[in-house]
Amino acid sequence: MHSEIESSAINGWAMMPRPNRRLTALAREVVRCARPLLAPSTDLFLGVETDAAGTLRLLWWRRNDFKLIAEISAGPEGFCPEDTAEGALQDAGAELLAYLAGRWPTPPSGFGVITDGTGVAFTPDHPAPSATGWLLRQATGARPLLAIVPLDPKGPCAMLAGAMSAALH
């Protein structure tokens, strides 16, 4: 995936040479579904992650200390009702991650994305946001994020969406 990144940057984000409309649409749906779960006055951001067993995790972290403050884990049969904000995000997240899995020759056993309610990003070579040290590696620039939809550079993921981040489109 890194070989697809162009060196040119627009608004601080490197752009991918070929936009993927389906991936972008799925990411925008995750953003739309995440917004009600991320109050604008809070400094929270969300992770949506899956594992080899098909469990989907919704994870909320605080911006200032990266502390995990809430989590919902369930397999598809245990998702929240579709008419709830949590259920809508579980459905949208599962669809995005199923599609995103096809971007790896062999999908990792656990992977996910983060969202700040504005954008969606992931790290292809270290793809599980809940992995120990993942957030710190993003904040230090050790593992640059790829944005499917750019994160808010002043939002709760600002420390993660630094100059080393890139955008798919």
Report, as a whole number of angstroms, the end-to-end distance. 13 Å
Shape: globular
* Total strand segments: 9
Structural class: alpha+beta
Number of helices: 3
List segments where confidence is low: pLDDT < 50 over at least 5 consecutive residues. 1-17
Element order: H for helix, E for strand: EEHEEEHEEHEE
Residues in helix, % = 10-25%
Measured by DSSP, the beta-strand proportion falls in 15-25%
> Main β-sheet: number of strands, strand sense, barrel status?
7 strands, mixed
Rg measurement, Å: 15 Å
Task: Give, in spatial order, the strands making up the sheet with the most strands.
Answer: 5-4-3-6-7-8-9
Mean pLDDT over the full residue set? 83
Describe the structure.
The model is unreliable at 1-17 (pLDDT under 50). This protein has a seven-stranded mixed beta sheet with strand order 5-4-3-6-7-8-9. The protein has a two-stranded antiparallel ribbon with strand order 1-2. With 169 residues, it is of the alpha+beta class. 22% of the residues lie in helices and 23% in strands. The chain has helices at 21-34, 85-101, 134-139; strands at 9-10, 13-14, 44-50, 56-62, 68-74, 111-115, 120-122, 146-149, 166-167.
